[in-house]
Amino acid sequence: MEKQKVKYMYGVLEKQFENLFHKAATMPGITGDNLLALLESRLDNTVYRLGIATTRRAARQLVLHKHVTVNGEIVNIASYKLRAGDVVAVREKSKSLEAITTSLSARNARAFSWLEWDGKEMAGKFISAPSRELIPEKITEQLIVELYSK
């Protein structure tokens, strides 16, 4: 049930989730923490965390419809993995979109330490993948690790 909750929360399909888990398992460190860090470094999730979209689903839609750039290049792959130092911005033509302006005006002041936001440029910087303590979701990742290790 925990796996299903996380899949639904991040909008990831079964095969994508399984691939992410296996990638997290091969990385050095704690597998559960690595899995959450990989999920948080997806482009659609970062667009949501920056406040460009009100939900992860809306963020995915913005990415798929080419309203978002990464390091100046248009990226329309929601599962694009961001690396430290990548700059995620709203495309110049899309800055006046009602969905984006509404979302940014309603953006809560809660900032995430692994992201920087520049309101004038409508751009954010992905500083690094977050550690487990910084991720606010109530997830028991140990249950997911136990499920896959059977």
Can you characterise this structure?
A hairpin with a 2-residue loop joins strand 1 and strand 2 (73-74). The chain has a single domain (2-145), classed as Structural Genomics Hypothetical 15.5 Kd Protein In mrcA-pckA Intergenic Region, Chain A. With 150 residues, the protein is an alpha+beta fold. 43% of the residues lie in helices and 12% in strands. The chain has a five-stranded antiparallel β-sheet, covered by helices on one side. It starts with a helix and ends with a helix. The longest helix is centred in the N-terminal third of the chain and has 13 residues, at 14-26. The mean pLDDT is 89. The chain is built from seven helices and five strands.
Features:
12% strand; 150 residues; Structural Genomics Hypothetical 15.5 Kd Protein In mrcA-pckA Intergenic Region, Chain A; alpha+beta; 43% helix; five-stranded antiparallel beta sheet
Quick structural gist:
43% of the residues lie in helices and 12% in strands. It is α+β, with helices and mostly antiparallel strands and 150 residues long. A hairpin with a 4-residue loop joins strand 4 (115-118) and strand 5 (123-126).
